[in-house]
Specification:
The complex is a heterodimer of chains A (about 650) and B (about 500).
Chain A (H helix, E strand, L loop, with lengths): L1 H4 L9 H10 L3 H8 L3 H10 L2 E3 L6 H7 L5 E3 L8 H13 L15 E3 L8 H10 L5 E3 L8 H7 L7 E3 L8 H10 L5 E3 L8 H10 L5 E3 L7 H7 L7 E3 L8 H9 L6 E3 L8 H10 L5 E3 L9 H7 L7 E3 L7 H10 L5 E3 L8 H10 L5 E3 L8 H10 L5 E3 L8 H10 L5 E3 L8 H7 L7 E3 L8 H10 L5 E3 L8 H10 L5 E3 L8 H7 L7 E3 L8 H10 L5 E3 L8 H10 L5 E3 L7 H10 L5 E4 L7 H11 L5 E4 L3 H4 L2 H9 L3 E4 L1
Parallel strand pairs in A: 1-2, 2-3, 3-4, 4-5, 5-6, 6-7, 7-8, 8-9, 9-10, 10-11, 11-12, 12-13, 13-14, 14-15, 15-16, 16-17, 17-18, 18-19, 19-20, 20-21, 21-22, 22-23, 23-24
Chain B lengths: L1 H36 L1 H6 L1 H20 L3 H5 L1 H12 L4 H34 L3 H28 L4 H17 L3 H6 L2 H10 L1 H6 L11 H22 L9 E4 L2 H5 L4 E2 L6 E2 L2 H8 L9 H4 L3 H6 L5 E4 L20 H12 L4 E2 L7 E2 L2 H10 L5 E3 L4 E2 L2 H10 L5 E2 L3 H9 L4 H23 L4 H12 L8 H6 L6 H15 L10
Parallel strand pairs in B: 1-4
Antiparallel strand pairs in B: 2-3, 5-6, 7-8, 7-9
Helix pairs in contact in B: 1-7, 6-7, 12-17, 12-18, 20-21, 21-22
The chains are: A alpha/beta (about 650), B mainly alpha (about 500).
Main location (chain B): nucleus
Subcellular location (chain B): Nucleus
Protein name (chain B): C2H2-type domain-containing protein
Chain lengths: ~650, ~500
């Protein structure tokens, strides 16, 4: 009580001030520290918290009780949620509870992410939508079983504004019609890969949901008829038509005359679209901000270029795979001065001169994709570095002629650089990495197949680029344990690491990896030197490890797998193919890791059929995807296969 | 000649019998529909009954359509005809034919006795078996009558040269059955013309002819007529003939409702079309078989300039009535007939399958019956559609209407997954969901929410951690929707009926 009376103590702050302080904490880790201070702070946290992403479904009831004012609930990380869980949550945690603070968790909920919740069916969704009257945003993407009945259940959420139904494979026009009629306030809708949707459904949608601002019909087999309907949407700003094989220039003609608010259009990989179709779009929409036409143009024609002169507000253009001339760059840079991102991946005709002309005027470029533009050299990189000081992302995969000189320019001028892809650039060496390490904001670095880099180069990165969270060292054979030591000392925020085929890495190196507490994604294929000791170090140290690929790590023994089964409780995906794991260890790994969803178990040299069968039985309740050796199909009991099938597990036979 | 007279006399004697028989047939058919309209009976044993209903109906339809075909299938007659084709006329063959005729007439008599006997029984108690037997008897009878006529025709010595030609043409008629007629229906527009031209003649004909003297031949006409009639009526909508440029004819109600417009001057049999009458006339003698007698009379009349004739509906106040302000004339007599029946008559034909749809034109009923039950596209308001685009058009039009999801989706699921896992994983749940969907069907309002409420009520206590329900639903759905939709698509392409069920 003394501490409360002391005027200088932070705890004496009034509640509203604490609320304000809490609001200013942006990072999740900071908020975690805040709520760990004392009970009062935790109470502030629990009363203020709006967003919750649940990792383990077991804690969901407690968490929902703890945070009564949630507005956004993300359940995408616990795909085990099903109708039974929902009904329990609503009856026990909600209305059935006697304490007032426990109830009504669903009442204020505005956003619900149910991505990959394959177990949730119409009855569960029906209960949820009924319990959440304020629901505005729902994400049911990748719920493969989501069909018309589920759509009907969801359509009772009349206030819905945003809905993501990507890859809801069972959804047909009928379900879409349910949504369109029920949720007429929809502003954002994504229907990627909903393969059953046809023109009829889109037509009805466009007539019923006139407020749509964002519509993504990528990968659908819709025709120009749909574009005719879509053209009537007056408020549409973003239109995704990626890889729609049946639409062509005639359909884009409708877009020319319609969609007056259109800002962003994506027609990439549309086989039927040519430059004349894009001319229609560009002619009708002078205020276009983003044009994505990757892999649908054979060349950037002069007629299209002529029309593009009018796109003075254009910020993003992607013309991947097209043939482009040096004069085209001149025209683009002269007219599209506000360009922020340009994608020229696999474009033919991208030269140093072209790039120099482009960046001479487009000084605001932040994202530049030059993947597979083989003819560019340090000259182009220098020009980019000198002109585009605010460059954030540069992708120069397979540009073999880039050397340390180019990286030196980047390290000198582009200090905001966050992401650089140097995969397969064999000109990159330790000296180059030293220059590059001056970009201290770097968070994503891809150095795959750069065989000329060694531990020394990596140590520059480890000592300077402290914000790095993704590092790709695929087949960097010059990298050894010492490099990893330097890395683990500096890059504490590393989340994703690829060490595949770095043959020199041994158990000592993995011990350093074990110091990276944030690491969630580790790929270490074919590390022949590592044994169970190394794996144990990783399992013990990397508590957040969710995805582990250790294919062809043949020397790892059971001790390592036991450790894995014991410590890596957050593991979601594992690849154990070609590993010498025994039956017992396999059962332990598969049975003990309660978050495991996907496992690849091909060519396990020390395992028997019975072992695999037992392991599958141990995890059949939660596993969603498993890859097995093809002959096992006839050796495993039909019972376990049926059970897996019934639980919605996808089995891939290899 | 006395022979011919005798044959004619016999024929005339026979025909009324045939007529009375068909009269019975229609009566019996109507009676047949009755039990299905009583709801309690149909709901109790609906599936078998419906199935039976379907088959027997199509059977009877087939029989009616192919009446001419029947003697051709009969071996003896075939032989007979062939023999007469090959040989010249000789008394022994004549005697053969005569004795054959005698036999057949005796059979006929026996059969009629049989029918009279059965009829009493049937009236007492409508048994399904009896009904079926009766239909068989009916079919036999029909075939015998036709055989009689054809054999009688072959008896005449003067026929022998043209006989082979006649039999082949008859054979064609018979063999193609319904097929021949549609192809001839192509020229129906032409065929209608003479009727129009002879509008006054039609009205002069006596209307006192027995209305019930329906015949299978005429029924097949029905089916052919329906399509182009509808088309004609539709096509005629856009026509803009200036008033005064055409002649307006108005038939009286009785004339419109009379089943036939063309009557045989010898036997009095009625026909809907002149072409059919001409075909019929061939049986009455040689003089009707000349190309001149068989040719269409249109060609003669087409040489002189014809005044355009349009028709007015006798119903006062109707838009099709000539006194109406915005009078829209009807193009042909057939249009008049169908318009009058559809608009101003009782809808007395009830669909035996759904027991809800009523029609005044039997062809409309037949069209509907072809699709009845196939209307899988369902709106939340209860309206059904045979085509998806029609349903979506309806939903676009009406605020708040949504497509209803077919409730048999769940029922179909276990059929698709025939492995044992169904039993293992969710047998209990399956039963429950089955029940709920059943109740939905019975309520027929197709309120899905109600069904779900039931399901939730059942599942909520036991589904947690056992996950049976989820497990069951993880099964891949059978491609029910796909096949159905593609089927519907095919249907919509193959027959261009405008399904009116929803829009009416």
């Amino acid at each position: 009580m003394l501490s409360f009376q002391s005027s200088k103590n932070v705890l004496s702050l009034a509640e509203d001030l604490l609320f304000r302080i809490y609001e200013l904490l942006a990072a999740e880790s900071d908020r975690k520290s805040f709520r760990l201070v004392c009970r009062e702070f935790r109470r502030i946290d629990s009363l203020t918290r709006r967003h919750l992403r649940v990792i383990r479904i077991e804690f969901l009831p407690i968490l929902l009780r703890k945070y009564p004012r949630l507005q956004s609930l993300d359940l995408s990380a616990c795909p085990r949620i099903d109708d039974g869980v929902v009904s329990l949550l609503l009856t026990r945690v909600g209305r059935g509870s006697n304490s007032p603070s426990l109830g009504h968790w669903a009442w204020g909920l505005k956003s619900l992410v149910l991505s990959r919740a394959t177990g949730l069916r119409f009855s569960g969704l029906e209960m949820l939508t009924r319990a959440c009257p304020c629901l505005e945003s729902v994400d049911v993407s990748y719920c493969c079983g989501f069909g018309d009945r589920e759509a009907a259940a969801l359509s009772s959420a009349v206030g819905l504004r945003e809905l993501n139904m990507d890859k809801c494979l069972q959804l047909t026009d009928v379900g879409l019609a349910k949504i369109a009629v029920g949720c007429s306030k929809l502003e954002k809708l994504s229907l990627k890969w909903c393969m059953e949707i046809t023109d009829l459904g889109i037509d009805l949608l466009c007539k019923k949901c006139v407020d749509l601002k964002y519509l993504d019909v990528s990968y659908l087999k819709v025709t120009n008829e749909s574009l005719h309907s879509i053209a009537s949407l007056l408020k549409l700003e973003v239109l995704g038509l990626m890889a729609c094989p049946l639409i062509d220039d005639v359909g884009l003609q409708f877009i020319e005359r319609g969609c007056p608010s259109l800002k962003v259009i994506d027609v990439s990989r549309c086989e039927g679209v040519s430059s004349s179709g894009l001319i229609y779009v560009v002619r009708g929409h002078r205020n276009l901000l983003e044009l994505n036409a990757g892999y649908c143009l054979s060349e950037l024609s002069t007629a299209l270029l002529h029309q593009m002169k009018n796109l003075n507000h254009l910020e993003v253009i992607r013309i991947d795979g097209a043939r482009i001339s040096e004069t085209s760059f001149q025209v683009i840079s002269a007219n599209c001065k506000s360009l922020v991102e340009i994608g020229l991946s696999k474009c033919v005709g991208v030269t140093n001169m072209g790039i120099m002309r482009l960046v001479s005027a487009c000084i605001n470029l932040r994202v530049l994709n030059l993947t597979c533009c083989h003819s560019i050299t340090d000259t182009a990189i220098s020009a980019i570095a000198y002109s585009c000081r605010s460059l954030v992302c540069l992708k120069v995969e397979s540009c073999n002629m880039i050397t340390e000189k180019g990286l030196c320019q980047l390290g000198s001028f582009c200090l905001l650089l966050e992401e650089i892809d140097l995969t397969d650039c064999c000109g990159v060496n330790d000296k180059g990495l030293e220059y590059l390490s001056r970009c201290s904001e770097l968070s994503c670095l891809k150095l795959g197949l750069c065989t000329n880099i060694s531990n020394k180069g990596l140590s520059y990165i480890g000592s300077n680029c402290l914000k790095i969270h993704e590092l790709d060292l695929y087949r960097c054979t010059g990298i050894g344990d010492d490099g990893l030591e330097a890395l683990s000392n500096g890059c504490k925020k590393l989340r994703k690491l690829n060490l595949s085929y770095c043959n020199a890495v041994s158990d000592r190196g993995l011990a350093y990896i074990g110091r990276l507490e944030e690491l969630s994604d580790l790929e270490m294929r074919a590390l022949h030197k590592i044994t169970g000791v190394g794996l144990e170090a990783v399992a013990v140290g990397c508590k957040k490890l969710a995805d582990l690929d250790m294919k062809h790590c043949e020397k790892v023994g059971d001790s390592g797998f036991w450790a894995l089964a014991y410590y890596s409780k957050n593991l979601r995906q594992i690849n154990l193919s070609y590993c010498g794991i025994s039956d017992m260890a396999l059962c332990m790994v598969m049975g003990n890791l309660s978050r495991l969803q996907e496992a690849k178990l091909v060519h396990l040299s020390n395992s028997t059929v019975e072992g695999v069968e037992l392991a599958l039985r141990a995890c059949c309740a939660r596993i969603k995807k498993v890859k097995l050796f093809a002959p096992l199909r006839f050796m495993l009991s039909s019972e376990i296969l049926e059970i897996l099938h019934a639980r919605g597990c996808i089995i891939r036979w290899d | 000649m006395d022979l011919k007279e005798r044959v004619c006399g016999e024929l005339q004697k026979e025909v009324p019998k045939g007529a009375s028989f068909t009269k019975f047939n229609t009566q019996h058919q109507q009676k047949w529909e009755d039990p299905s309209s009583t709801s309690d009976y149909s709901t109790r044993i609906e599936p078998p009954f419906q199935a039976f209903n379907q088959t027997s109906q199509t059977q009877s339809l087939l029989l009616c359509n192919n009446q001419i075909k029947v003697p051709m299938q009969d071996g003896s007659v075939n032989d007979l005809l062939q023999a007469s084709k090959i040989q010249d006329w000789d008394p022994s063959a004549m005697l053969n034919n005569l004795s054959f005729l005698g036999q057949k007439i005796h059979q006929l008599q026996d059969l009629v006795y049989l029918i009279i006997g059965r009829k009493g029984q049937v009236l007492g108690r409508p048994d399904e078996l009896l009904v079926q037997q009766q239909q068989l008897v009916t079919a036999d009878l029909t075939s015998i009558i036709v055989q009689l006529i054809s054999t009688a025709g072959s008896l005449l010595p003067s026929v022998k040269q043209t006989l082979s030609a006649a039999t082949t043409s008859l054979g064609q008629c018979g063999e193609f059955g319904g097929v021949v007629f549609p192809s001839s229906a192509q020229g129906l527009n032409d065929g209608v013309q003479p009727q129009n031209a002879g509008g006054s003649k039609v009205s002069e004909l006596p209307n006192s002819v027995d209305i019930t003297s329906n015949n299978g031949n005429e029924q097949s006409n029905h089916i052919i007529e329906e399509h182009e009639l509808k088309d004609e009526e539709d096509a005629e909508e856009g026509e803009n003939l200036l008033p005064g440029t055409y002649e307006i004819l108005q038939l009286e109600k009785e004339e419109i409702l009379a089943p036939h417009t063309h009557f045989c001057t010898i036997c009095g049999k009625g026909f809907k079309r002149d072409a059919n009458l001409r075909m019929h006339m061939r049986g009455h003698g040689d003089e009707y078989k000349t190309p001149g007698a068989l040719a269409k009379p249109t060609k003669e009349s087409s040489s002189e300039p014809t005044i355009i004739k349009r028709y007015s509906c006798p119903y006062a106040g109707c838009k099709r009535n000539k006194d109406h302000k915005k009078f829209q004339p009807l193009k042909t007599i057939l249009c008049v007939k169908n318009h009058y029946k559809r608009t101003h008559c009782d809808k007395s034909y009830i669909c035996s399958r759904c027991n809800t749809k009523k029609f005044s034109v039997i062809a409309d009923l037949k069209t509907h019956e072809k699709h009845c039950g196939k209307d899988k596209w369902l709106c939340s308001c209860g309206t059904t559609f045979s085509r998806k685009d029609k349903l979506f058009g309806h939903i676009t039009l009406f605020q708040g209407h949504t497509p209803a999801i077919p409730s048999d989706e769940i029922k179909a699921a276990p059929a698709g997954t025939s492995d044992g896992a169904t039993n293992k994983v969710g047998s209990v749940n399956f039963n429950l969901s089955y029940v709920s969907s059943e109740s939905e069907v019975q309520s027929s309002s197709m309120d899905i929410k109600g069904g779900i409420d039931d399901a939730v009520g059942y599942f909520s206590p036991l589904s947690f951690d056992t996950c049976n329900f989820g497990g069951f639903h993880e099964f891949p759905r059978p491609p029910f929707d796909d096949s159905e939709s593609s089927f519907a698509f095919l249907l919509s392409r193959s027959c261009n009926y405008s399904q009116k069920s929803g829009e009416e």
